[in-house]
Write a structure and sequence with these properties.
The protein has 245 residues and is α/β, with parallel strands linked by helices. The chain has 9 helices and 7 strands. The chain has one domain: NAD(P)-binding Rossmann-like Domain (Rossmann fold, 3-Layer(aba) Sandwich), CATH 3.40.50. Strand 4, helix 4 and strand 5 form a beta-alpha-beta unit.
Length: 245
């Protein structure tokens, strides 16, 4: 059973993959956790129930991350249930892939709406809600360095996330709130594995100096660092990829 520290985390996209691993890791550090979901309510409730069974206070709340009213309700839920917000971990995002010459523009717009506007909405609310001594943790991608074909729309959205992260860190001057982004490399999540053959997955894994894909738990360790002891890490992009980029 985790010790209750009185600290509260909101984890967007917390129903599975990296988001769930982050929720579990922060809970292990004594955080109460709001598990946010967009479409996977059942999986979010599974995550929250597992945390509750482990002795952690956890609730769920749903909403489109790009909808400011829906996300304000999510933050209001955290404040009402737990008394405030200390850490926001914004993992929610989408990753449709296609060469730039072939990318449907409606799909491109959907990627930017979720990944860029969604980050802006969540960061705006986090800047209003997070208490002194807290942390805001966005998610970028190592593809901004790897420049892999077919990732153009996704990498463009995450380049915007990095810019927002660095500027918000400076705008929160004087409030003792850190703002950073984690930039995972290839990680064994449904979002990454979908549509890839075993041969492609094995080739990507072997390209890493560690000769494997990352795991959600690998990424969650970096999040726990930024959410806790990393008070002198601020306005940074942490590439968490086993040395791939």
């Amino acid at each position: 059973m985790a010790n209750d520290t009185g600290r509260v985390a909101v984890v967007t996209g917390g129903s599975g993959g990296i988001g769930r691993a982050c929720a579990e890791r922060l809970a292990a550090n004594g955080f109460s956790v709001l598990v946010h979901y967009a479409g996977s309510k059942d999986r979010a409730e599974e995550t929250a129930n597992a945390l509750t069974r482990a002795g952690v206070r956890a609730v769920t709340a749903g909403g489109d991350v790009a909808d400011e009213a829906a996300m304000a309700a999510v933050f209001d839920t955290a404040a009402r249930e737990f008394g405030g917000v200390d850490v926001v971990v914004h993992t929610a995002g989408i990753m449709p892939l296609a060469p730039i010459a072939q990318m449907d523009l409606d799909t491109f717009d959907r990627v930017q709406r979720t990944n860029v506007r969604g980050t802006f909405v969540v960061d705006q609310l986090a800047a209003r809600y997070v208490r002194e001594g807290g942390a805001i943790i966005n998610f970028s991608t190592s593809v901004t360095r790897l420049q892999m074909p077919t990732y153009g729309a996704y990498a463009a959205s995450k380049g915007a996330v990095e810019a927002l992260t660095l500027i918000l860190a400076r705008e929160l001057r004087g409030r003792d709130i850190t703002v950073n982004a984690v930039a995972p490399g290839p990680t064994a999540t449904p979002l990454f594995l979908e549509g890839k053959s075993r041969e492609v997955i094995d080739r990507i894994a072997d390209a890493n100096p560690m000769q494997r894909l990352g795991t959600p738990e690998d990424i969650a360790e970096t999040v726990a660092f930024l959410a806790g002891p990393a008070r002198w890490v601020n306005g940074q992009i942490l590439y968490t990829n086993g040395g791939m980029a």
